[in-house]
């Protein structure tokens, strides 16, 4: 695996340290194995969807948490009837997992659902009013009526 040095970015960019840390972290901790598989898609200008394949998990075995721009999805299997089952082949991965997604500022989870073995998490970027572009009116000052704005000399 190739290591990328982000030191030049730290020396020449001011205020982008968070982005550099994210890039460095992503380069360092690429999750090997990639289980469970997932998709990230854009569903609109400021809308996104994450789909995670969680076949065999019940809703109460899944947890979704957002803390400080980090979305964490975990799956913890409850005890089942493993003692009563004899497998000739076991190809379904029914193991616990934790998947993390770094969210950009102002991206919030709007809803989540489980359907046909896919956990769907919908997200939306919601900019505060103070950050949205707004038009500023330009005042030209009061119009002077001829002969009224100056005292006669």
Automatic annotation (TrEMBL):
Give one Pfam family, short name only: HSP20
Record's keyword annotation contains Transmembrane: no
Protein name listed in UniProt? 16 kDa heat shock protein A
- UniProtKB keywords: Stress response
Which protein family is named in the record? Belongs to the small heat shock protein (HSP20) family.
Q: What range(s) does the SHSP domain occupy?
A: 29-141
Instruction: Classify the source by domain of life.
Output: Bacteria
CDD domains on file: ACD_IbpA-B_like (cd06470)
Entries under InterPro entries matching the protein = A-crystallin/Hsp20_dom, ACD_IbpA/B, HSP20-like_chaperone
């Amino acid at each position: 695996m190739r290591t990328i040095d982000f030191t030049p970015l730290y020396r020449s960019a001011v205020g982008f340290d968070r982005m550099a840390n994210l890039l460095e972290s992503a380069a360092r901790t690429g999750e090997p194995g990639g289980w469970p598989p997932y998709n990230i898609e854009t569903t609109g200008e400021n809308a996104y969807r994450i789909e995670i394949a969680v076949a065999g998990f019940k809703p109460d075995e899944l947890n979704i948490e957002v803390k400080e721009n980090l979305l964490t999805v975990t799956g913890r299997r409850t005890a089942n009837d493993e003692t009563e089952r004899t497998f000739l082949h076991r190809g379904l991965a029914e193991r616990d997992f934790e998947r993390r997604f770094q969210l950009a500022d102002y991206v919030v989870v709007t809803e989540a659902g489980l359907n046909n073995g896919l956990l769907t998490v919908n997200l939306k970027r919601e900019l505060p009013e103070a950050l949205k572009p707004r038009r500023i009116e330009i005042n030209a000052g009061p119009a002077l009526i001829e002969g009224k704005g100056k005292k006669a000399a």
